[in-house]
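Reopening: structure tokens for the protoporphyrin IX containing FE complex, inputs below.
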Amino acid sequence: MSHDHDAPTLDFAGTTPYEDYVHADVLTHLQQPLSDDPGELAFLVTTQVMELWFTVIVHEWHTAGNRLREDDPYGAMEALQRSTYELRALNASWEPLAHLTPARFNSYRSALGEGSGFQSAMYRRMEFLLGDKSASLLVPHRGSPRVYDELEKALHEPCLYDEVLRHLARQGLPVPDEVLTRDVSGRYEPHPGVEEMWARVYAGDPQAEPYRLGEALTEVAELVWRWRNDHLVATRRAMGAKAGTGGSAGVAWLEKRAAKQVFPELWTARSHV
Ligand code: HEM
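Re-run output (same inputs, fresh job):
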């Protein structure tokens, strides 16, 4: 086969190198809509896209935690910053689902059965890294050994915030001992001593490393809160106050979830600066 010298290569012995790297053939054949509604594909693909972003964000927060354990705050902040770009891309992917009407959503909703994003293991990994942990959240995944094992491992690892506080303690900041030695497999509970520590950091030099780390984490927290809020509004538009397919009260339950602050003392400390 002959073609222009400045044109792309057309001949490959096997699959294309692009395919070998991206696995696009696999990726674009993972969509199995359950209804005839033409809008269902966008719902399914948006969900899959979000799963992929969750995966990348978990990877960034893991990296950030590892860097903090090595007392490399700049390496950690680089990973946190990447995650904020990815969180913005994640949040932008609400757009195709943000305008659903209840009738439209109904045309494939029943096909979802008891399926719900609540059962997303990768989202759960994100929440575990943010400190919202509980062994009971492993229960839905008993039927998937690999997923279960990964989640169980994540449950017993320190969350990102634990790594932050341990790092700051090693830098000489006054983090209470009971916070540093907490049972990391349980939910992180806000502590007045940590609030005081952040208030002190925020009253100080904006160029100082703990201050900049605090701001990087605040950015992450705000973007996670925006995801929850966009999800809440999309849900309210699509199904009003109906119960969720996952068995919860629906919007009322999501409102409670969205009201929780990520890295709580970074928000409450602001009242004391
Ligand atoms: C407009 C479409 C959507 C509606 C109406 C909706 C509705 C709901 C509802 C009612 C819940 C509460 C649990 C339940 O009872 O099911 C929930 C949870 C959840 N949904 Fe959605 N959802 C939508 C789209 C999505 C998408 C695209 C994702 C992406 C993966 C997603 C991820 C989640 C997650 C992770 C939770 C659990 C949140 C938590 O644990 O705090 N949802 N959703």
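The chain has one domain: 36-104+116-272. Residues 46-47, 50, 97, 100, 116-118, 120, 123, 231, 234-235, 238-239, 244-248, 250, 253-254, 257 surround protoporphyrin IX containing FE (CB under 6 Å). Marking as resolved unless the reporter disagrees.
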